Amino acid sequence: MSPDSVVPGSVRSAAEVNEQIRSLWMRARGSLSAQEREEYELLVVEWAEAIREAVVEAA
């Protein structure tokens, strides 16, 4: 997945995004390129948003 394919406000679960983060780290073997770092940062933001939405829904 490229950073361009991250859709703001996407409705993926935190678990789905976390799995993608894990996959990225596995592919990168622990050392991210500049492009992979950008992708990682976008995924972390998406994951945090998904976590917040889950908390709001639970409340």
Write up this protein.
The chain has 59 residues and is mainly α. Helices cover 68% and strands 0% of the residues. It is built from 2 helices and no strands. Helix 1 runs antiparallel to helix 2. The radius of gyration is 12 Å and the shape is elongated.
Helix content: 55-70%
Strand content: under 5%
What about the largest sheet?
none
- Structural class by SSE content: mainly alpha
Concise account of the structure shown:
The protein is an all-alpha fold and 59 residues long.
Write the layout of secondary structure elements.
Elements: H1 14-28, H2 34-58
Helix pairs in contact: 1-2
For this entry, give a set of tags:
59 residues, mainly alpha, 2 helices
